[in-house]
Specification:
alpha/beta, 3 helices
């Protein structure tokens, strides 16, 4: 299936971080706190395209419940901080949401990919069948 991301809006408090820590500056050198300030003073719009977050639906290993994890931890921190300081509750943010099945397919792609130009493939003899088509 040609599954892709779903562009939608989600309450920022429903999003979880994907890392334990993150730098306090963006790659461009600007601080996360400056982004919060710019959002509060309307120098940056919540609708700015760079604030669209990439989010994966996954499972909480402790509760076994479905959760939303964001890979844009610095922007997520800034948006959560903005929500706190501005009193906007819930604060709805734009996300590209990838489903669990998409995440599994991406993980499978990474696991099974070799450094190759992909223009040719060698057939190898397998000692055990891992996958077989049905006739």
């Amino acid at each position: 299936s040609s599954e892709q991301s779903l562009h939608t809006r989600v309450a920022v408090q429903d999003l979880r971080y994907s890392q334990v820590s993150c730098k306090e500056t963006f790659q461009c050198g600007r601080s996360i706190v400056q982004l919060v300030h710019d959002l509060l003073h309307r120098k940056v719009s919540l609708r700015a395209s760079f604030l669209t977050l990439t989010v994966f639906q996954t499972i909480d290993e402790e509760t076994n419940e479905s959760i939303l994890r964001c890979i844009d931890n610095r922007r997520l921190w800034a948006l959560k901080e903005y929500a706190k300081r501005s009193g906007k509750d819930p604060l709805m943010v734009n996300v590209n949401l990838f489903s669990r099945s998409t995440l599994k397919q991406v993980q499978r792609f990474i696991h099974n990919s070799d450094p190759t130009d992909g223009k040719d493939v060698l057939l190898r003899k397998n000692k055990q069948k891992k996958w077989c088509y049905k006739r």
